[in-house]
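Q: Convert this sequence to structure tokens.
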Amino acid sequence: MIEWVTSFFSKPIGWPTHVIAMAAFTLMCWSVRIPEGDLPFLLTALGLWLWVLLTWTARPFLRLLALAVQEQPLRMVWQGWRHWMIAPLILIANTLVFASDLPFRAAFWYSRSALEKTAHLVLAGGEQETYFWAGVFPIYDAKLVGGGVKFQLSSKRFPWGSRGFYYRPQGQPVAKNHIQYCRSIDSEWCFWIYGGW
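A:
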């Protein structure tokens, strides 16, 4: 048993850690398709990254110990260093994605036709749409507000508040106050955030 443990830890970091890192990266991309993140997916991604970082930082010390027990040269700890670079590279990509607008822009581009179809139905006097998916966005409702169509996402803000899209066919300005703002996407669409109680 001891021989198996020391043999395991004397090897470089393996593919299970890389798979977990890729899963964390994928969940993070899915989470930040919504500005400020989709909380359940965001927390899951952060949990997976914590596991990867703990493995990545603890494994070298365990590897040194295993090499010492096996009476092998400690310089062997550097063998397979390319395997050790995969998780940090994925983490760097993850950080860039998290800091960028790319997942949101890509998700909006993919979902725009479904959002516009619903917006035109509501503008034409159709009934208020509730509980549906528009592309990759979960929508709680879509209704007429101030000459445009306001979409509220089912995914809530943390710790409170709501958010969604606003379709303004004439490019009209959106009312703002100290707890709500609308971030322009283009001349017809903006993403609103309401941070009140």
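The CA atoms of residues 119 and 149 lie 6 Å apart.
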